[in-house]
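Continuing from the previous page of notes. For each protein in this section, the sequence appears first, followed by its structure tokens. Read the first protein now.
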Amino acid sequence: MKEFDKVKDKLNMDIPDKLLISLVFEMTRKKDKEFVVELQRIQKENDIVFNTVMRNKFRKYYYFRDELLDTEEFSEYKIRTFTYNEEELKEVFNDFYSRLETYDPDKIIKSLKTNIMDLEKGNKIGRHADKWLDYYKEKYSNVDYSLMIYKVDQAEFERNDYNPNFINEFIFNTYDKLINYRHLAIVFADNIKDKNDFDKTWQLIYKAGIYAENFVQHTEKFHAFKSENQTKILANFLDEKNIKNAQTLALSFYDGMSYGYKFEDLYISENQTTKILILKKIELDNSNVPCPSCFTTEQRGNSYPEVFIKSWECANPSCPDRSKSGRGKRFDEYGTYRYFKLAKNSESNQIDDDLYYSWRRDIFDNDADWKKYLIKNYSYNDENILVKNVNNINSYGRNITNEITNETKTALNIVKEFEKLPIFNLFKGIFDGKEENTKRNIVLEKDIEVINDNSTSFLNKLKPAQVGSAITSPPYYNAREYSQWGNMILYFVDMLLNADAVYNSLKEDSYYLYNIGDIVAEDNVYVVSLMSKKRIQLGFLSSMIFEIAGFNLIGNIIWDKGQVQSKRNSTVNLFSGYVKCINCYEHVLVFLKGTSKKNPSKVVKINPVIKINSKGENTYKHTAPYPLELVDLLKDFTLKDDYILDPYLGSGTSLKWALQNGYKGLGIELNKEYYELSLEKIFKK
């Protein structure tokens, strides 16, 4: 066959025909789909799920059964190796020859030669594991911990003289003691109250989450951060909102990049007695990392899959793990470390089925063993862990340092204060510089008022203190119907101004129920690209801006949406570092205009928010409707003669409930289509 001969002449290598065919098929990945089908067959017949390392081993066996020296571990599964016909052979070799002509043939040839040598040596998956893990251990030999667990309870709050910045102090003081890209877990036990018996649990949680992501400032140049452009966008947006000192506020905020930790998860027990905040340390590190396939540091590229998390591309032409076009393997530090720990397959790092299913969702059973889960999933055998204020903890093959504090502190370093964060100062400056509307003269007259207008503009014309309570599910930052926000900061500027308008509309000692869920999206705050994709703390940031607007956060009703069907966080690796939960709840933040001591925090189970009919359509034609059961929570907070306000009415659920239950209602919706939809829904008999 001429295509085969052309490739062989081009390679000019002494290589058996059968081996060359296997190499070319494996390198072009033309049979990988068939391999996946074969792997699924084996798993089904043997009632087993293979992890990533075993899948890679099976793939090598699928293509190179006759060349591998050690095939004993595959024999029991009776795997069928790849087959081909003349037409497929012709197509694959023609494609491979084109690549030799198009890309650098020397790199492809060197990679082929290395693959052949590896096959002769037995092609051991993870052959550089020991060497690479030794490198990692040496690199972080002067860093104390791979995981930190800090339990916060009432006694700890009292020991710190009720100072709300005590968690920030711990975050600040221990940051350099944690290995990069590893985790800090803050466990909030029971409800934590201040000297006046006000519940401060959720305030402590949201401030810890925001502080952790923003307490370090990067002032050096970062290639993807276009500070002048971002400053201009923010300043212009603030000018449009008539905010005083817009340019100064924007320049101050974008004087650097805030970083520290990245918010990953917030686990909540069913009775809300335990909340676990999971944070991942992120610090810019441009030092070269050895390639996991060839262990060289001959690298190129300036790629960041996430802000400050760098990935590398191996530039060693002899690396065995090159792409179809001859490009080098791409990898990052923690991903490589995690993979090699998986390859070592220590029993102490395995996640059993019971533990996995107990933590599949981010709402866990009250009696679930959070100590075991945190240690097993966020650390590995022989690593050092700091545990603070936690008794009776099993090490599971780790080295535990347990700090139990009893002394009382009376002063904390002022630099750890939440109020000194750039993000807080920005929104506080916006609030202080907003334009005051003195023409508030609209009086509500109808029992049910449905308004098609900008919510903030209308409420600023409303005579103050006419509303008895409020509830809403605001438009999400990335919602397609409200796409005017180029980044997350601009979104929260509008939410802050609206929160202020709602505050002025409410009577004293009135409640505002605010339904918001965290999302995974590009925040575009510093970098406008996929690099900025992360889990955005919509609930925490909403809490911050509402308190700036004058509200008190007094509770958080957790809306459990049940068994959310999602493969987003599924994994075949029941092993430390791989298991992630599915987000199955939204916040219903309870804000108060006043100082009531009522604590409404609880977990509420309601059917999923999106209603899907038999045709797969959203029957409410709205991206974020909420069910009547959620509005039913207002019964605890509203008098019969009072108005219920929904500043982002959407499909009209809240006013429909008000009409059905004998309450007055005011709903405002900017979108004309949703406005018409809400009228139909509210008044339809």
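Done with the first. The second protein uses the same format. Note its length before scrolling.
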Amino acid sequence: HIEELETHYPSQLSGGQKQRVALARALAPKPELLLLDEPFSALDRVLRIELAEKLKKLQKRIGIPLAFITHSLDEAFVLADRILILYRGEVQQFGAPEEIFYHPRNLHVAELAGLSNIFDDARVEEQVEKLVEGNNAGPKRTVLKSGEMRIAVNPLNLKEGDKVSWGIHPENITLLLPNSGSEDKDENVYSAYVHSITGKGPKKRIVLKLARHEKSLNAEVPAQFADALNLNTGDLCLVKMDMSKVVAF
């Protein structure tokens, strides 16, 4: 909707209005393909996402294929049906946004996908077949050794001893109290100490010092849940990682 801008001079337009006018001019000739090279880079994050959402709706309505170049993960996830990631001129990965987010192929893709918890010291300890009972009961999985931690992940086509990196998104970490019934020896449950708690909005970011690894872990939890746990700096808690949410590459 730019009809209200037809009597305005360029100097009278806001940044967002200028972007809308530029997009309208690009669409006017009815192109078979629309190529946009970081069109929202000069705008603040809120406005970028707002325009990206509008562009997505417009693109679906008019049916023009769109190639959108961006360094913003937020823009890519709002707009894209498929994402192609380039690093130093080479294709790193091509796939759906969910694939990029949960199954990055390498460190470059993982970092671009916002994976802030990355551990690059792991090796494959064992391949566990699906068992119904016993100490290794559970689905087929690969077990990694990282520091003094054993981490179960979805099956990897690797040999024992192979080096591998792993990580988990902060929002996929579950925090438990020490007396919650889960023990540190349980698979993918680890003792940790609260290093810091920040955030006053709907989510809180908690930095945790793992008892069995030298690196810290960032967790993002709903503020209501964090308040219910009543955790404070220095408190002991348990960190639980769902196997399906752990990323390995």
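What the second structure shows: DSSP finds six helices and 14 strands in the chain. The longest helix spans residues 45-62. We return to this in next week's lecture.
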